[in-house]
Amino acid sequence: MVLHFGKATGIFVKTMPFVLLRMGIGILLGIAAILYFGIVIGFGLWLLDAGTISGGIGAIGLLLAIVIFIGAWRLISRYVLYLVKAGHIAVIAHIVDTGEVPSNQIAFGKSKVREHFKEASALFAVDQLVKAIIKQFNRRVVSFSNLFAFSSGIRNIIRIIGRAIAIAASYIDEAIIAYMFTTTEENPWRAARDGVVLYGKNWKPVLGSTLLIVLALYAATFVMLLAMTPIASVLGSLSTVFEVVGWVVVFGIVLTIYAGFLNPWVKTVVITTFLIEAQDDTPDSATMERIADRSDKFNELMGKAETEEKEPATAPAR
Question: What is the pTM of this model?
């Protein structure tokens, strides 16, 4: 397996305008999360101390606050971070494909997204379908439980790897989107289909490097949490409220670093690996049929590609 970490890191540095933009958004979201949970938890503890609510009601209120936060996070991710992420993907793909760095990356990324996807909803629809295909393909092709069924002592490791594969799918679908930015195919569904086929031909190096980096991401996140626990400990010596606030700050900082720095770097590595490994390959019918046998979602994608091609030809003349 060939790793392209060095080249990908160089590209990551070259796309620093997008990285800083995402970091800025991540910081704002991190501050918003700290303020939100700080107010919610602080208010809840105040009510508990005053005897206004019981511990059970407080727990239910906290759970409801978490659900609301997750819903708001997903909404912001879909309509704000998603377009920024797509623009960043377009720039990464351009650098890998041509070796040239756009002078105005933000404007370039925005124009490429508009060029390939008329609406943000179209980009989101393609990405969601591709993500579902990759998940199905990975589950069918890679079965660690079968490989290590003889040893019960490593079942927990198998579960971790299985979870890592699921997380890897969220990065690999972005590599497919990156491929779509490098092709001249005007039909986005057909371009996505071809990208999936190329992944089917090169899944071993792409998935292998992605798994390595996702597992490293687990470790890095854990180390960051350990490194920042003294903040919560120091504040905990003052009062319970300050300790809770300290933990909120710690998680907010970790979330900011992850969303603004680590996540874009991982994405760059996966995209670079995929585009390099697939650059000399072309989609073929044999691989297409093999993936179709493993994924009903891929059959749906092929159907959309054919429908998109037929619609202009069957449109009534004016």
Answer: 0.76
